[in-house]
Design brief:
Blueprint: E1 3-6, E2 18-19, H1 50-64, H2 70-82, H3 90-98, H4 118-128, E3 140-144, H5 149-162, E4 167-170, E5 182-184, E6 187-188, H6 191-207, H7 218-232, E7 237-241, E8 259-262, H8 270-273, H9 277-284, E9 294-297, H10 301-313, E10 318-321, H11 341-358, H12 362-366, H13 378-384, E11 394-398, E12 416-421, H14 427-443, H15 454-462, E13 469-470, E14 482-489, H16 497-510, E15 517-520, H17 547-561, E16 603-605, H18 609-622, E17 626-633, H19 636-647
Parallel strand pairs: 3-7, 3-8, 4-7, 8-9, 9-10, 12-17, 14-15, 14-17, 15-16
Antiparallel strand pairs: 1-11, 2-13, 4-5, 5-6, 11-12
Helix pairs in contact: 1-2, 2-6, 5-11, 5-13, 6-7, 9-10, 14-16, 16-17
């Protein structure tokens, strides 16, 4: 089973799939001091093979301090890992990471006890790993914001990579595999290299644990690991996305970035950052450093005033960036979909230009540029068209329902199942998501048949590693299939669905987009466990508490039927979950709903996400005239779980 990931600005043409590729370049490697590595077995101190490990570690250290080719570097890493019992077991590393989770759910206070504050501990961890003096050499772009900071970072990485620089990108959260957080030259770090750096950091820190300096919690460890990876991989630039807030975020150990950026601000993480836009802006502006240039986008006045005040205190030259003018793209499309991405792209362009100017590379980029400086350099255009970020305005065409047992495609024996994934979870981002979804489903009315040969299937399998397939639009083919739009939703209990769901429904309705049904389902992933892309997926019916999903369903029915008050209380028929609704549920008319009689045909609670995906696939497989368009939103955890299931 597999699905097809496409650039959402383009569509399939005659079943031809064009995979994106990484351009080979010559990179400039600066000489760095040799590195100390600690190659000990997972979870164990040095045993009777201590001398052998130390000798092997010395050899690896010598190799890593040189500018090696990618193949040579990977070979050394594999050799070192093979010498270490258990260290090449990826799931063992995931278990170790899971042990660093200190809270049982988001918003709970960390249980880490220490005489030191978070940033003090971070500095101590960096000192243990001999990273302190090397971080400024990473020439960092540091980006905070409520929404759009991940997209901005992705654009920055792609732009500077297209300019010929070796890039490192650190983002959060991951959707399927923790390695997504660490990209080198546009690609997720390899499993072997991840294990190589992971166990080195783990063992060195483990040896230094004291009552006052415990092991770092999960995000602090991943942040330290990112610095370790980027220093050892000798990147020319590191683009670092803030995790939460700014002032007290683990990434704020960056003392001298090259440039800082603040993406769009809004109401999110209020339990930590405060419940006013001004308070949130104060936290975000905490990444400003004295006299270091900073850029932001247009903000509401309450937030903008705080940003300017903080900038003035630190003598920071703060500039407000306009959204990117689409006319400057010379006909190219942004690789990330949605009108809001022009705002993020404009910020990224300004950040990259400033970075190039401050590192003495701007004139080099322009020297082969035929156009006037007022226009966007060609390398910038290539980057804007190549950036990728999973789970944000992403479209996945599920092909499994079109395949028979011999892995060939049945041309018209099945309906279409299309997933629209966006991890929106704040009021502002939900509105943006709704506008994007409405626009995307309108465009999909011109969607041609998906694919028509087993050859295309093999192409899709080959590019799964990059998670990105670009295809071309064919507007000449019209679809006559019956379209049903379904919402697949979950959100964390710290969110306010009474704001999120009405905002989603009203924004979609304003564009003429209406949901036939809504399905509420718990996520597979849990807050207290780190899983990988190959971790076991639970099957069958979950025994998890579904009370939250039922409350979401009751709210949905109130919104759809315009019911006010507590008519749909806990005594209604909504309290008993069906294992799976009947197949007819997908295309039944909503007119059958009768809240007064306790008949609710507009929504369903399903206890298992894997069963939900299987049920949707079965529905379209049995009805060739059906096109099911599923919006998955409300939680990045849910989006990641769906992507993991589609990949399987």
């Amino acid at each position: 089973m597999f699905s097809m990931f496409v650039n959402t600005n383009n569509y399939l043409k005659s079943g031809v799939v064009i995979a994106s590729h990484v351009r080979k370049r010559e990179y400039r490697f600066s000489s760095r001091a040799p590195w100390k590595y600690s190659f000990q077995p997972a979870f164990n101190l040095i045993d009777h093979r201590e001398l052998h490990f130390q000798a092997r570690g010395s050899e690896c250290r010598k190799m890593s301090s040189q500018a090696m080719g990618e193949k040579e570097s990977n070979g050394v890493v594999k050799d070192c890992l093979q010498e270490l019992p258990h260290s090449n077991n990826y799931e063992t590393a995931m278990e170790a990471l899971s042990s660093l989770i200190t809270g049982q759910k988001r918003g709970s206070r960390s249980s880490v006890g220490s005489r030191y504050g978070k940033l003090e501990r971070m500095q101590m961890y960096l000192k243990i790993l001999d990273l302190e003096e090397h971080i400024p050499k990473l020439k960092i772009i540091h980006v905070a914001g409520t929404k759009g900071k991940g997209s901005t970072c992705a654009f920055c990485e792609a732009i500077l990579r297209e300019c010929g620089f070796r890039t490192g990108l650190f983002t959060s959260p991951h959707l399927i595999d923790v390695r997504e957080r660490f990209r080198i030259n546009g690609l997720d770090i390899s499993e072997d290299k991840f294990l190589f750096y992971f166990w080195d950091c783990w063992n060195q820190l483990k040896q230094q644990v004291t009552e006052d300096l415990p092991m770092p919690p999960l995000f602090q460890f991943l942040t330290v690991l990112a610095f370790k990876i980027f220093v050892c991989e000798q990147v020319d630039v590191a683009i670092i996305e803030v995790g939460l807030g700014g002032t007290k975020d683990s990434t704020n150990v960056i003392k001298v970035p090259v440039v800082c950026g603040i993406a769009t601000l809004g109401m999110d993480h209020t339990e930590v950052l405060g419940d006013t836009l001004g308070e949130i802006a104060s936290h975000k502006s905490g990444i400003f450093k004295p006299q270091i240039p900073a850029f932001t986008v247009h903000q509401l006045s309450e937030a903008m005033d705080v940003l300017h005040e903080k900038a003035n205190e630190l003598a920071v030259p703060l500039k407000v960036v306009e959204p990117l003018d689409e006319r400057k793209l010379d006909g190219l499309k942004l690789s990330l979909s949605g009108d809001h991405q022009f705002t993020n792209a404009g910020l990224a362009v300004s950040l990259c230009k400033c970075w190039l100017q401050r590192t003495g590379n701007w004139e080099k980029i322009l020297q082969n540029q035929d156009k006037k400086e007022a226009n966007i350099p060609e390398a910038f255009l290539r980057g804007l068209a190549a950036a990728r970020l999973s789970g944000r305005a992403q479209i996945v065409y599920d092909l499994s329902s079109n395949c028979n047992s011999s892995s060939t495609l049945a041309e018209s024996s099945s309906g279409d199942l299309i997933f629209y994934l966006d991890g929106a979870h704040s009021p502002e981002s939900m509105e943006v998501c709704a506008r994007w979804f409405s626009s995307a489903v309108q465009e999909s009315k011109q969607l041609p048949k998906l694919l028509s040969s087993s050859h295309d299937v093999e192409i899709i399998k080959e590019v799964w590693g990059s998670g990105y397939i670009q295809s071309e639009r064919d507007s000449s083919v019209e679809s006559n299939k019956i379209s049903k739009k379904i919402l697949l939703f979950n959100c964390m209990e710290v969110r306010d669905p009474q704001i999120l769901l009405p905002r989603l429904v009203s924004t979609c309705a304003s564009s003429g987009t209406y949901f036939s049904k809504a399905i509420f389902v718990p996520s597979m992933s849990t807050y207290n466990k780190v899983t990988s892309g190959t971790s076991a997926i639970p099957s069958g019916i979950s025994n998890r508490d579904l009370s939250w999903q039922f409350s979401l369903q009751r709210l949905w029915e109130k919104i759809i039927h315009g019911i006010e008050g507590d008519i749909l209380d806990k005594s209604s028929k909504l309290d008993s979950a069906e294992t799976l609704p009947p197949r007819e549920f997908v295309y039944e008319d909503a007119s059958r709903c009768s809240p007064a009689d306790g008949i609710f045909g507009c929504s369903s609670v399903i206890s298992s996400l894997p069963l939900t995906i299987k049920w949707l696939r079965d529905c379209v497989r049995e009805n060739p005239a059906l096109r099911v368009q599923v919006l998955v939103t409300g939680s990045l955890h849910l989006v990641g779980d769906v992507l993991k299931l589609l990949k399987r």
